[in-house]
Amino acid sequence: MAHDASYPDFYSDPHVIDTPREYFAQMRAINPVVREAYHGSMIVSGYDEVSEVLTSRDGTFSSSVSVLGPLPPLPFEPEGDDIREQLDAHRDLMPWTAHLVCFDGDKHTKHRALLTSLLTFKRLKANEAYLGELVDKLIDEFQRSGTCEVVQQFAHKVSTYAISDIMGISMEDRFELLELLGAPPSQIDGDAVHKVGPDPLIFLKERFDGYILARQAEPCGDLLSDLANARFKDGSAPSYERLAELARFLFGAGQDTTSRLMAMAIRVLGDDLALQDRLRREPERIGDFLEEVLRIDPPVKVVYRVVQKSTQIAGVPAPAGTVVNVSLTGANNDPRHYADPDRFDLDRQGVRDHMAFSRGAHGCLGAPLARLEAKVAIERLLARTSQIRISEAHHGAPGERRYAFEPTYSFRNIQELHIEFEPAVELA
Ligand code: HEM
């Protein structure tokens, strides 16, 4: 592969980690569908083109590479215009393959159906009440100091405790699970060092196998009990291991994504006192505010697909075996779809019209929970502070801010966010 391209290597250049929107704008200006020169993946960065790939339902694309894309490369040499059989024969060698997000076709539909009815309105309502108390307790811990490191002291705890609560995981276990979950592994040096295997959530296996087995023996009305006793449409029972895999994925999927949504939202607020004041006066607009945060800089930058049957994407040939970088960041900032996409606009028309949660068969199942968590967190934080500022000592002066992002090419994970604030007048 030639390496003299006019654009950086998305999968190894640390600068792209800091500026993904700029990278996708550069690629889109070349063409919304480009085969990049370093790894031969196809970068799809336009709204319509991304939508075309994500909503394709005829088996042209496989999600088997959804999380990591072209690195590591496919464990076989693609042959011919239809590689479905080859792919199926090698799935067990591919990273993340044990989890729903990498399933395809009927297997995916069948397993996804086991999860779709679990996040009920009633459970979300109960979770909202819990979240209010939880968020207030977390704010109590740092409020007097007037400072907070948002990712560790606040956002990460909110997302881990929220999903634990809605699933029915005991209070005691929640603390331990929080400890167990570290940052996602670096991807910037590919998969050579970290060797992400077929089941990167294996470290949670024993615990979640235990949860499912205990609830099969004695259901207690919580989400895990419903899952433990769920049946496929034909009435047959999935194995307990499979149910525990689904439980682990549900637990893991919304951790970093949701916590980084909260952190990115607080970053926007910290640089815009007028917006803070407006949202304090109009808390009913916090939902719209979060949608715009999700649009402009989404927590999942890219999902990946591999072409199973040779095709074209927006007229560009995509032979079987091509890995497609389906850029949610690119789609969400496409000037052909959004007026002035670089402007953060709370009043943007159709503010939910973005792809931060993907779309099509694999569209995010946890979006209602993620939205709820972030809404409660921001509502309470705004209500209990009168001014939130980005810490200049940590991130530099306005206009020269510095933030570090975790070295992953799939996720937009801010590492730390230090803020300072004044407590709200009535609580000061
Ligand atoms: C802001 C927070 C979140 C973001 C940005 C996000 C984003 C995404 C994206 C982009 C996908 C699609 C992957 C693909 O198309 O290949 C996805 C799938 C998924 N998400 Fe989320 N997610 C978030 C929170 C959550 C939460 C809280 C949960 C759990 C309650 C969750 C559970 C899932 C599941 C189970 C899937 C797999 C669906 C499937 O493959 O059929 N997510 N998410």
Describe the protein's architecture and organization.
With 428 residues, the chain is α+β, with helices and mostly antiparallel strands. The chain has one domain: Orthogonal Bundle (Cytochrome p450), CATH 1.10.630.10. The protein is 44% helix and 9% strand. The chain contains 17 helices and ten strands. Strands 1-2-8-5-3 form a five-stranded mixed beta sheet, sandwiched between helices. A hairpin with a 2-residue loop joins strand 6 (311-313) and strand 7. Helix 6 runs parallel beside helix 16 (367-383) and helix 7 packs across helix 8 (171-180). The model has no long low-confidence stretch (mean pLDDT 92). Protoporphyrin IX containing FE binds at residues 63, 66, 100-101, 112, 115, 163, 249-250, 253-254, 257-258, 261, 298-300, 303, 356-358, 362, 364-366, 369-370.
